[in-house]
């Protein structure tokens, strides 16, 4: 059974940090993306990484503050989030990746998500 399970969310103060993890089981994903969904706001791509970790891409809102990485031995992808802002509050989930016309979308597999709440 293919599963993606996120962890590491929680409550943080503005300016603080959180590290999210995405543990995969059942298969190996060449590319994994992080997305977030806040109430009343369209789903937003956050970051993605390829198998070797040599290629990453970030949403403008994440550049300079978030870092995506992976440990293939553990089949886990991480999202280090620094300098958090209240507008980062959302449900964060990892997913396999689809790309269409240069835009990233969640693929066939996604986790249930982990809630991140940033207080001002």
Describe the model.
This protein has 120 residues and is mostly beta strands. It has no helices and 11 strands. It has strands at residues 3-7, 10-13, 18-25, 32-37, 44-49, 56-58, 66-71, 76-81, 90-100, 103-110, 114-119. Strands 2, 4, 5, 6, 9, 10 and 11 form a 7-stranded mixed beta sheet that branches. Strand 5 and strand 6 form a beta hairpin. It is globular, with a radius of gyration of 13 Å. The N and C termini lie far apart (40 Å).
Please name the defining characteristics of this protein:
globular, mainly beta, single chain, 0% helix, 120 residues
Indicate the mean pLDDT.
96
Low-confidence residue ranges? none
Proportion in helices: under 10%
Computed over alpha carbons, the radius of gyration is: 13 Å
Q: Based on DSSP secondary structure assignment, what is the total number of beta strands?
A: 11
Distance between the termini: 40 Å
* Gross geometry: globular
Please indicate the percent range of residues in DSSP E strands (runs of 2 or more): over 45%
Number of helices, counting only DSSP H or I runs of 4 residues or more: 0
What's the main sheet like?
7 strands, mixed
What are the secondary-structure elements, in order, as H or E? EEEEEEEEEEE
Structural class: mainly beta
């Amino acid at each position: 059974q293919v599963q993606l399970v996120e962890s590491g969310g929680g409550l943080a103060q503005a300016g603080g940090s959180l590290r999210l993890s995405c543990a995969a089981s059942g298969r190996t994903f060449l590319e994994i993306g992080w997305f977030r969904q806040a109430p009343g706001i369209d789903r937003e791509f956050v970051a993605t990484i390829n198998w070797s970790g040599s290629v990453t891409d970030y949403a403008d809102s994440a550049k300079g503050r978030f870092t995506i990485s992976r440990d293939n031995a553990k089949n886990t992808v991480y999202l280090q989030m620094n300098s958090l802002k209240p507008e980062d509050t959302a449900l964060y989930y990892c997913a396999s990746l689809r790309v269409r016309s240069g835009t990233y979308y969640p693929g066939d597999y996604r986790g249930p998500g982990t809630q991140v709440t940033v207080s001002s």
